[in-house]
Amino acid sequence: MMSEPTRQLPEVKAFTRINPTLSPAFANWYANNVEITTSYFDVALFFGEVAGVTGDALNVERKTRVVLPLGQAKLLAFSLIRQLATYETTFGTINLDPKVIPDDLRETAAEWESRTKSEG
């Protein structure tokens, strides 16, 4: 019985530069709604635009979905936190109407607000 060849993982290194190019399939969308789902392997971000209201339901037109591995999603979260903190330090607090914060995010939002107020 032949043994399978050993597969070496590529070396992980930090890059100091990124050279981006635009794919021919590149699309630019506006989104004022994001729905996030997770699986064991990845995070999916559904970007959409509010299209109106029907009774007590918000109508959202989904524009695109981006699926990220969990590690990349965590890096995105770190980057968003840094960008928002920099913005709020420079221009002031981004105020959210409490009614737009989903119930399952209220505790996280309160922690963020108390942390940024104590740092400012």
Short précis:
The chain has helices at residues 70-91, 106-119; strands at 33-38, 42-54, 57-69. It is α+β, with helices and mostly antiparallel strands.
Broad shape: extended
Number of domains: 1
Query: Which sequence of strands runs across the widest sheet?
Result: 1-2-3
SSE ordering: EEEHH
Helicity level, as a percent range? 25-40%
CA-CA gap between termini? 66 Å
| Averaged pLDDT | 88
Alpha plus pi helix count: 2
Q: How much strand content do the residues show?
A: 25-35%
Number of strands: 3
Radius of gyration: 20 Å
Commentary on this structure:
The protein has 120 residues and is of the alpha+beta class. It has one domain (33-119). Helices cover 30% and strands 27% of the residues. It has helices spanning 70-91, 106-119, and strands at residues 33-38, 42-54, 57-69. A three-stranded antiparallel beta sheet has the order 1-2-3. Strand 1 and strand 2 (42-54) form a beta hairpin. The N and C termini lie far apart (66 Å).
Write the layout of secondary structure elements.
Layout: E1 33-38, E2 42-54, E3 57-69, H1 70-91, H2 106-119
Antiparallel strand pairs: 1-2, 2-3
List keywords for this structure.
alpha+beta; 3-stranded antiparallel sheet; 2 helices
